[in-house]
Amino acid sequence: MIVEHLSLVDFRNYAQAELALEPGPNVLVGRNGQGKTNLAEAIAYLATLGSHRVSADAPLVRDGKDAAFVRARLAHGQRRVTLELQINKQGANRARVSGSPVRASELPRYAQVVLFAPEDLQIVRGDPSQRRRFADQLLVQRTPRMAGVIADYERTLRQRTALLKSARARRITGTQLSTLDVWDDKLVALGSELIDARTRLAQDLAEPVAAAYAGVAGEDHRPRLAWALSVRGGDPEEGDAHEDEAAGTTAELFRAALAARRPQELERGLTLVGPHRDDLLLTVRGLPVKGYASHGESWSVALSLRLASAELLRGESQGGDPVLILDDVFAELDAHRRRRLAGVVAGFEQVVVTAAVAADVPEPLRANAVRIEAGAVLGPLADHPIGPSSDE
């Protein structure tokens, strides 16, 4: 897949912008705060319906406006498709595909993007919710219908937890709360499907992650990933990742764990079992990345997760490679890792790189460099050079 042209109106700091992109590498160069990442964010939003920087849509709309507009022309081989999205500060977003109205949730079927940004370091160093979000986003990209499963699970979880809180406030015991069994059935059905999908995803990522890590770091530190599941005992959300050896299907283990934890759930007013409490454990050299890995190792693991994601999507897509976006990444890497990363990504159909200093980006990726300044796309960097203060 190739993004041939991107148009923005009232998106972030852009009153209006037109950006032409080429197959192969594209570099957006400009000082910090000028709008490079905003362009990358707009492209990625069409594929994920979310921002990698904020959880709500309102910050994406330019100050003083009610809506932002993102339009992109995509090429899938010889086929062209135009995606249009109206992002509203309030109310549902609106979308079109080649002029025809569609639900916004349909857009990811046409756009596949994998974005790596400095915020992704939190996938390996942050709390479990960061790793769950990474996994679920990739699940939806691979299998769009999983978005409905995840949304239904979260809705059921909220309703079940509300019932637990109400019971706690009214001092109702488990034997007096028969309606909880109904929510348990729904939670188990949806949650088991999500747990099994995440488990398969970790298995599918194993080899691509190892290959990407070796490609970026130049060393084999044996990166591994596996889920710690609350249905097998413990509470990974609170750092207790021990697992029982009990056998059974995911649904059977889930139901048994809910029964065992019901007294604690009623006492705390929380749902303590399910995929919302699980954690994706990441290790290098046999040690947890979080707390043990060096800064370089942590960066390499985070990068490897995104590169492995791109490889999975690439292998499964009939529309070509996903667009690979590297947002302000090269400045954080040493010269060795910069060169190796450039070699790893060079084979993708389209790569978009943002950088404050063009020289941070290895020369093979600088074929099409564009200058960005103060919410404006100024054109080729050669025609609009940035002065010596660009690294300030």
UniProtKB/TrEMBL annotation:
Residues 3-355 form the RecF/RecN/SMC N-terminal domain. It holds the Pfam family SMC_N. SUPFAM superfamilies: P-loop containing nucleoside triphosphate hydrolases. It is found in: Cytoplasm. Belongs to the RecF family. The RecF protein is involved in DNA metabolism; it is required for DNA replication and normal SOS inducibility. RecF binds preferentially to single-stranded, linear DNA. It also seems to bind ATP. This is DNA replication and repair protein RecF.
